[in-house]
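Researcher: Final request for today, and then I'll write up notes for the group meeting. The sequence and the SMILES for S-adenosylmethionine follow.
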Amino acid sequence: MNPALGPMDLARFGAAVAARIGLDFDETRFGFLGEVLERRLAALGRTPAAYLARLEAGDTAEELGALARELTVGETYFFRNREQFQALAEIVLPERRIAAAGGDGVRLLSAGCASGEEAYSLAIVARETIVDPASVTIRAVDINPAALEQAAAAHYSPWALRETPPEMRRKWFRGDGRHVVLAEAVRSAVGFAQRNLLAPDPELWPPGHYDVVFCRNVIMYFTPAQARALIARVAASLRPGGYLFLGHAETLRGVAEGFCLCHTHGTFYYRLDWRDSCRTIAAPVRKPAEPVSTAPQPRHPATAPTPDMPAVRAALPTGRVAEALASVRTRPPEAAGETEALLAEAMVLADGDRLAVAEAACRRLLAVDPRNAGAHYVLALCRERAGDCAGAAEHDREASALAPEFAMPRLHLGLVARRAGDRVLARGELGQALVLLQGEDGTRLSLFGGGFPRDTLVALCRAALRECGGAP
Ligand SMILES: C[S@@+](CC[C@H](N)C(=O)[O-])C[C@H]1O[C@@H](n2cnc3c(N)ncnc32)[C@H](O)[C@@H]1O
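Model: Predicted protein-S-adenosylmethionine complex:
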């Protein structure tokens, strides 16, 4: 080692690396740190004093990238911890698709994506789970530019697919000599960028932005303080009820509060705690829900939208809320009654996260048609997104009482109850939703079903029911 480098230099280098990148090197690894420092000094032609002073003062992203090439561990592969991707497919994405809805769709982040396998696995699952790929945004960031170059090339060794199910290999990869190449549809679904997870970066961490963050096998290499700083940033950038996936060897214990531990599919992951108002559902029940009847029910006109609603619904996941609204508003008055137009408008507004206006539309509708179950359901969605789960539960119950064959309020109430930890209520509502979903009116599903086909809603319901200890 360079005789000019003393233990103090190595200690300073280690501290600067921890402060700037997060990585934790104790004294047993000073030999390795010394070799890296020597290489950087030789590459830049700087003295140890000058180099360390610049690094401590906040050197460029370029230098941090060069250090990351040397210091980070980039081990990764497709569908690593496969059970987490099953949970993503069966619980997390369907739920976030309903909860997040709105014009912006579902947003995923792979934080510390290395050579891209994790982010591309997310993209494959999203394509197989969500009907409209345009309603999902996947970002993937890493500090190491060499890893990002590999990600962009999307050429992998077959070993990278060791956990990939055969049917997915066939569908999304093709052979190319000794390599496999990822399908363009998956490659183009991910936006990669070089980012330091520890740098103050409002563009990467907007408040309440992501539905799901995969940050796996990153904080295990960090100092405890930097792990806490990163997870605090993740928490602030998750939407209420958003999910965080860590690596199998990682935990939030002692790192962060405010997350609930989820345990499904034989794996663990975290969900950002619902706001305090949602911890318990203390809904005063004004009308008890009627028992589910399989006999044909008279369908209230306002809960059976006109068949052109699928077109309106189709515009929602693409973010074209204004377009969807225009389509509702320009329908000729004779095509549907005023109540239907108002209901569709309310649903479109709620999907676009314009909650106050959506609620106002529902209340206008209820003023002329107090028994409109659809309006109560939309109010339940709005109340939940506003953090008022008791209000949401009340409107779901009202909707079910008015239209006992209407599946969505049962499903919604079941999910809200599950989140609040009321497993008994959750089981009851989800069980009823499961029965009702099989016979739910198709046009009503297309308006209220969050863009999901019946099968997906049934699968979501089943998975949630299993999670609450109900029969599958
Ligand atoms: C072991 S890999 C994990 C890859 C993938 N998440 C997985 O679990 O398979 C850790 C990645 O975190 C990245 N990393 C470490 N510190 C980082 C930082 N401060 N900012 C961004 N990426 C970082 C490394 O470059 C490396 O690619």
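Model: The radius of gyration is 25 Å. Residues 21-22, 68, 72-76, 80, 112-114, 118, 142-144, 147, 196-198, 216-218, 247 surround S-adenosylmethionine (CB under 6 Å).
Researcher: Thanks, that's everything.
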